[in-house]
Amino acid sequence: MPEMQLGSHTLRSHGVKVAKLHKYDWLILLLLAAVDVTLNLIEPFHRFVGKEMMTDLKYPFQKDTIPFWAVPIYAVLLPVAIFLVYYICRKDVYDLHHAILGLFYSVLITLVITDAIKDAVGRPRPNFFWRCFPNGIGVGDNFSLVEA
């Protein structure tokens, strides 16, 4: 069965209406962004790292498979570009709005949950030793001398 289109809903014709209908959704997004900024500013839990823990923290240091700068491009900009192409083809501002709103919700909820867990747990990365001591010999306050 062919799809029926009763008319196009463009940004110009329905954009303000959609924005007014969903103003509280956008306010919640701003609140989530503020929570994430706050979580990045607070002091995280500090964990004691003893000599016996070092065996669990000596995984080899690997280069990132995706560069840090590319993550927002893959996670946000590329999907938004796809949504815009879809909007240009369909001329439905409701689909565009809900797609962008859903994307931003998913990204911000992920950031808030991840940062909250990082702050609460404070566990070092598995390659903690090699990040701190690239030469393989570490001297610290909590252990005298650790060799690789």
UniProtKB/TrEMBL annotation:
Keywords: Membrane, Transmembrane, Transmembrane helix. GO terms for cellular component: membrane. One of its GO terms (biological process) is phospholipid metabolic process. GO terms for molecular function: phosphatidate phosphatase activity. SUPFAM superfamilies: Acid phosphatase/Vanadium-dependent haloperoxidase (SSF48317). The keyword Transmembrane applies. The keyword Secreted does not apply. The chain crosses the membrane at residues 26-45, 66-88, 100-117. This is Phosphatidic acid phosphatase type 2/haloperoxidase domain-containing protein. It comes from Malus baccata.
